């Protein structure tokens, strides 16, 4: 049996917007690039912001820090808001789609899915 493959979703706001609009998300909402964290650059980000998808490289330092943080959480516990939705990614190349699902599922109070679905 061959291993399932997932087509990666390009890290491009227009591609992401097209994808979620086909899922039925209203065009009142949109993904956009954040060009930096300086105050002047953040002023260019449309408001309100309901979620951020962060792209970053997985390095040895990241893995070391991630393992240390996981150990602390296991030892001390962690309080997580009941409003946060988390999906563990187990499929290679699905990080873009999983990121989009996180943004939508964590904002069901304001972002409605399916009202404008074209499928």
Automatic annotation (TrEMBL):
PROSITE patterns: UCH_DOMAIN. Transmembrane segments: none annotated. It comes from the Eukaryota. It is an enzyme of class 3 (hydrolase). Keywords: Hydrolase, Protease, Thiol protease, Ubl conjugation pathway. The keyword Hydrolase applies. Coiled coil: none annotated. The keyword Zinc-finger does not apply. GO terms for biological process: protein deubiquitination; ubiquitin-dependent protein catabolic process. It catalyses: Thiol-dependent hydrolysis of ester, thioester, amide, peptide and isopeptide bonds formed by the C-terminal Gly of ubiquitin (a 76-residue protein attached to proteins as an intracellular targeting signal). Its EC number is 3.4.19.12. One of its GO terms (molecular function) is cysteine-type deubiquitinase activity. Belongs to the peptidase C12 family. This is Ubiquitin carboxyl-terminal hydrolase. It comes from Rhizophagus irregularis (strain DAOM 197198w).
């Amino acid at each position: 049996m061959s291993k399932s493959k997932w087509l990666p979703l390009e890290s491009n706001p227009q591609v992401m917007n097209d994808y979620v609009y086909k899922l039925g998300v209203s065009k009142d909402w949109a993904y956009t690039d954040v060009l930096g964290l300086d105050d002047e650059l953040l002023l260019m980000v449309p408001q309100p912001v309901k979620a951020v998808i962060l792209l970053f490289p997985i390095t040895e330092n990241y893995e070391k820090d991630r393992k240390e943080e996981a150990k602390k959480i296991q030892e001390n516990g962690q309080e997580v808001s009941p409003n946060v939705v988390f999906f563990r990614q187990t499929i290679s190349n699905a990080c873009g789609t999983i990121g989009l699902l996180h943004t939508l599922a964590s904002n069901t109070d304001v972002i409605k899915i399916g009202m404008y679905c074209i499928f």
